[in-house]
Amino acid sequence: MFVDQASVYVKAGDGGNGLVAYRREKYVPLGGPAGGDGGDGADIIFEVDEGLNTLMDFRYNRHFKAKRGENGMSKTQHGKNAAPLIISVPPGTTVIDEDTEEVIADLTTQGQQAVIVKGGRGGRGNTRFVTPRNPAPDIAENGEPGQERNIKVELKLIADVGLVGFPSVGKSTLLSVVSAAKPKIADYHFTTLAPNLGVVDTSDHRSFVMADLPGLIEGASEGVGLGHQFLRHVERTRVIVHVIDMASMEGRIPYDDYQKINKELEEFDANLLKRPQIIAANKMDMPGAKENLAIFKDNLPEGIPVYEISALTRAGLRDILFAIADLLEAIPKIAPEIEDTDEEVVYRYQKEDAPFEITRDPDGAFVIYGAKVEKLFKMTNFSSDGAIRRFSRQLRGMGVDDELRKRGAKDGDTIRLLEYEFDFVE
């Protein structure tokens, strides 16, 4: 089964907890604090594997959770860092954050990796909190929570040549006779339910990858028909071969077919019309094809090559394959418009979110929320009085106490943070 789109939940590993410990050994006077730091949680990394050509693995496993780091140990021993969880994906995979629609990664080459979510750092042990005023602290941090996000994984097949055209114009037949691919061929629309790939070898020992895409119809860019689901695969092709039924077996006018398909490509992505395009005038062995071709060429703008072929009888295939191979040699491996948009970003400024926000529930309780304050809360060990006092100082330093007073909080009012409740104390 061909799967080219999936929604997935990914959760990186949490950091291990730091430890509160003291060194008590014979002949070691003043051993002092000896709690080690926790290990870092595992990242989740996507890696390109050329042996894959579908997102089938994501069909049955839509949740990925990486391991957490090991907790800190006594004698100032650091907990073990968790090994990253590496998930193999096919070349051409794009990863998008479902909530922000931001493109996280665009993976195209063998072995290329991208960190999708980052593991949390390990919590610090009590040796990290030693000060002259407090030489034996009883404070340790919990591990930092790992990142989590809902992502959309899309596959855009990487092929040198893409076959486009209306249903039943002979795209699958053409692919089957020029390569070893065996797509399903039948005399009804939408026989091709998923893209098919084939490696084409020319008689002069050149080769390229050709993709047969499901047939497009008018309105495909707006979701009509079946081919709209696979329009994204055209984006990766370097040359577009437009297959046209020149015998007009379905009763359509060939030049109208050409205009309608190009319109759908343009509405999906205007850059597609900048790609080199070759017209394969198919079914030239059928009656009326020669006359239709003459009319077609009269309407066609200059400079667009047209090759007469018959996929059924294999007439004209050698010439069009040579023309495709020549064109591929003359253009860059990546289309210029893709190269410009995929420039590596050295630094991307992101506006920092407010450390906290305060709202009020219907029952009168004050609710504190925000990524920074929630992370501090999760990293605090509330079984330790010292850690609780430290958390209170951190909240005061962030301005939470002052903001609560401005909003009318009084002694004894209820304060909520995540699923926990506190009393406001002046």
TrEMBL record:
Domain OBG-type G residues, every copy: 159-329
Q: Which PROSITE patterns match?
A: G_OBG (PS51710), GTP1_OBG (PS00905), OBG (PS51883), OCT (PS51881)
Q: Which residue numbers delimit the OCT domain?
A: 348-426
SUPFAM superfamilies per UniProt: Obg GTP-binding protein C-terminal domain (SSF102741), Obg GTP-binding protein N-terminal domain (SSF82051), P-loop containing nucleoside triphosphate hydrolases (SSF52540)
Keyword terms, alphabetized: Cytoplasm, GTP-binding, Hydrolase, Magnesium, Metal-binding, Nucleotide-binding
| Cofactor(s) this protein cannot do without | Mg(2+)
Q: List localization entries.
A: Cytoplasm
- The UniProt record gives the binding positions of Mg(2+) as 172, 192
Q: Does the record bear Hydrolase in its keywords?
A: yes
Species name: Oceanobacillus chungangensis
Q: What does this protein do?
A: An essential GTPase which binds GTP, GDP and possibly (p)ppGpp with moderate affinity, with high nucleotide exchange rates and a fairly low GTP hydrolysis rate. Plays a role in control of the cell cycle, stress response, ribosome biogenesis and in those bacteria that undergo differentiation, in morphogenesis control.
What subunit structure does UniProt give? Monomer.
**Any one biological process term the GO annotation gives:** ribosome biogenesis
Q: What is this protein called?
A: GTPase Obg
Location of the region described as Disordered in the Swiss-Prot/TrEMBL record: 119-145
